[in-house]
């Protein structure tokens, strides 16, 4: 998980603001599911959504991070979906911690 975020930061190190926005967006997705695991709307992401593509989908490692959290491509690759029975709170909380570290630690991805 940490390695995926490190890789995302390294692959886009020329645009720190974009990386930070991606991390914050990923934190929102993960946090929404952790707080509301029974709400399907938080466990389903349309891959061709313009905002998602701009903030996460177009960055190498963004979708991979969500897949590590349990999201799976569905319906002909149109959605990322996290089945309720695969919403693992330990994994989601760990993802949240890693993202918080990535956002707040100025040395994240360097060491």
From TrEMBL:
Residues in PUB domain copies: 18-88
Pfam families associated with the record: PUB
InterPro entries in alphabetical order: PUB-like_dom_sf, PUB_domain
Protein name, as recorded: PUB domain-containing protein
Organism: Dendrobium nobile (Orchid)
């Amino acid at each position: 998980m940490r390695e995926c975020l490190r890789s995302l930061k390294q692959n886009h190190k020329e645009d720190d603001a974009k990386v930070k926005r991606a991390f914050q967006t990923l934190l929102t997705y993960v946090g929404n599911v952790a707080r509301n695991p029974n709400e399907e709307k938080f466990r389903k992401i349309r891959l061709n959504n313009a905002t998602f593509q701009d903030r996460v989908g177009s960055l190498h490692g963004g979708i991979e991070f969500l897949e590590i959290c349990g999201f799976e491509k569905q319906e002909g690759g149109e959605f990322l979906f996290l089945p309720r029975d695969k919403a693992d709170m330990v994994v989601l909380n760990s993802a949240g911690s890693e993202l918080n570290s990535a956002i707040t630690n100025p040395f994240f991805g360097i060491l």
